[in-house]
Amino acid sequence: MKMVAPWTRFYSNSCCLCCHVRTGTILLGVWYLIINAVVLLILLSALADPDQYHFSSSELGGDFEFMDDANMCIAIAVSLLMILICAMATYGAYKQHAAWIIPFFCYQIFDFALNTLVAVTVLVYPNSIQEYIRQLPPNFPYRDDIMSVNPTCLVLIILLFISIILTFKGYLISCVWNCYRYINGRNSSDVLVYVTSNDTTVLLPPYDDASVNGAAKEPPPPYVSA
């Protein structure tokens, strides 16, 4: 016979390196927070000095601008939004507020769906890879070496690489989801499940309710000697 909590019966509360899902979600949120902060600094520096990201025709075979002001502002807004989402997930996992983790989880699902669409596009239109490589600048690193690879082998290598990325992203999604369920279960339920030997379960009331109900009962009548 064993006393178990309902939020630990159907999912794991541990992730990579044998740490708790809360710890893993906090580390993941901090990591994404650092990455988006670095991206934001790069975008702000590019907005402050546009000439630094303007490449001449001799460098790329054609006049090319890294990003115009409108797209730069959109990218900065997206970076700020991502920093907010990552900060909310980190704070929610640390303070055990499950609702704060939902935006970060939705972002993970959206990112996973985009990578899945990329994999499907590569699988359905394998020639698009070669066309994309041909559009790269002539002095792009390893451009000629990639063009010399057999198209079928190139598609298989890219699909293998995307599959590894999708597997890793799926694992991170499960980590965040288990953290959400763990926190949500702990915050919303204090009921324990009593599992008997014949596979039947009995819900036990919370300890506070049992104590109050027990204290509310009238005491037994006093003992009277004969």
Automatic annotation (TrEMBL):
Q: Tell me which InterPro entries the record gives.
A: LAPTM4/5 (IPR004687), LAPTM_transporter (IPR051115)
Query: How does the UniProt record describe the way this protein sits in the membrane?
Result: Multi-pass membrane protein
- MF terms per GO, please? ceramide binding; kinase binding; phosphatidylinositol bisphosphate binding; ubiquitin protein ligase binding
Localization recorded for this chain is: Cell membrane; Cell projection; Endomembrane system; Endosome, Multivesicular body lumen
Similarity annotation: Belongs to the LAPTM4/LAPTM5 transporter family.
One of the record's GO cellular component terms: multivesicular body membrane
Function field: Required for optimal lysosomal function. Blocks EGF-stimulated EGFR intraluminal sorting and degradation. Conversely by binding with the phosphatidylinositol 4,5-bisphosphate, regulates its PIP5K1C interaction, inhibits HGS ubiquitination and relieves LAPTM4B inhibition of EGFR degradation. Recruits SLC3A2 and SLC7A5 (the Leu transporter) to the lysosome, promoting entry of leucine and other essential amino acid (EAA) into the lysosome, stimulating activation of proton-transporting vacuolar (V)-ATPase protein pump (V-ATPase) and hence mTORC1 activation.
The alphabetized list of GO BP terms reads: endosome organization; endosome transport via multivesicular body sorting pathway; negative regulation of lysosomal protein catabolic process; negative regulation of transforming growth factor beta1 production; regulation of lysosomal membrane permeability; regulation of lysosome organization
| Segments forming a coiled coil | none
Q: Which UniProt keywords apply?
A: Cell membrane, Cell projection, Endosome, Lysosome, Membrane, Transmembrane, Transmembrane helix, Transport, Ubl conjugation
Q: Could you tell me which PANTHER family the record lists for this protein?
A: LYSOSOMAL-ASSOCIATED TRANSMEMBRANE PROTEIN (PTHR12479), LYSOSOMAL-ASSOCIATED TRANSMEMBRANE PROTEIN 4B (PTHR12479:SF6)
* Assembly: Homooligomer; upon reaching the lysosomes. Interacts with MCOLN1. Interacts with NEDD4; may play a role in the lysosomal sorting of LAPTM4B; enhances HGS association with NEDD4; mediates inhibition of EGFR degradation. Interacts with PIP5K1C; promotes SNX5 association with LAPTM4B; kinase activity of PIP5K1C is required; interaction is regulated by phosphatidylinositol 4,5-bisphosphate generated by PIP5K1C. Interacts with HGS; promotes HGS ubiquitination. Interacts with SNX5.
Segments passing through the bilayer = 30-49, 70-94, 100-125, 146-168
Q: Which organism is it from?
A: Sciurus vulgaris (Eurasian red squirrel)
Gene that encodes the chain: LAPTM4B
> Pfam families of this UniProt entry?
Mtp
What is the protein name for this chain? Lysosomal-associated transmembrane protein 4B
